[in-house]
Amino acid sequence: MKGRTPNSNENVVPLTGTNNPDALRERGKQLAADMKPDHLTKGGSKVYERIAPHVCNPLVARLSYHNLESFVLMCEALARHETLRKYLNTPGVGETYISETRNGEQIKNRPEVAQLNETFRQFLTVARDFGLTPAAERGLRANPAQGQLDLDEDDFA
Questions:
Q1: Which of 12-26, 58-72, 101-115 has the lowest mean pLDDT?
Q2: What angle in degrees, to the nearest 10, is found between the helix axes of 111-129 and 134-142?
Q3: Is the pLDDT reported for residue 145 higher than 70?
Q4: Alpha-carbon distance 31 to 18, whole Å?
Q5: Which of 5, 6, 56, 130 could pair with 32 as two cysteines, CB 3.0-4.6 Å apart?
Q6: Using 50, 70 and 90 to split pLDDT, how confident is the model at 121?
């Protein structure tokens, strides 16, 4: 490679990070707390506080300010899903009900079941974008970042 040889290391930034798991967890909690928006619902806030520190952990680093709104939508969808699941698990409620029609009794799904399925679909769609499903996580590991490609000079000959 041609070019001027640097005389000093003035443009080199030393690494100051640590690989201490406890320090990384604390850093993830702090980043999540700093990014937490004010407009979350009570349920969405609980989900955010449960998931965001793990996604903000520097080893994972999948949450940043430019994709925060997508993450908030995922948290809100999961909060609605959990509320609906809790309601349907209430004794005496269940996922079906019996309707008396002119043709006799019919077993029907509650409308909340359709809402439950829709909130799960919404959550899963965004969770895949963040690599929060096993298949999506494997996909992230299978595609290394450009600077991490293991290429030899013979690969281009």
A1: 12-26
A2: 10
A3: no
A4: 16
A5: 56
A6: very high
Query: From CA 132, how far away is CA 124, in angstroms rounded?
Result: 9
> Residue type at 6?
P
Report the C-alpha gap between 132 and 75 in whole angstroms: 12
Euclidean distance between CA atoms 75 and 47, whole angstroms? 6
Three-class SS of the chain: CCCCCCCCCCCCCCCCCCCCHHHHHHHHHHHHHHHCCCCCCHHHHHHHHHHHHHHHCCCCCCCCHHHHHHHHHHHHHHHHHHHHHHHHCCCCCCCEEEEEECCEEEEEECHHHHHHHHHHHHHHHHHHHCCCCHHHHHHHHHCCCHHHCCCCHHHHC
**Cα 20 from Cα 64, distance rounded (Å):** 22
User: What is the total residue count of the chain?
Assistant: 157
Nearest Cα residue to 95 out of 116, 79, 80, 76: 116
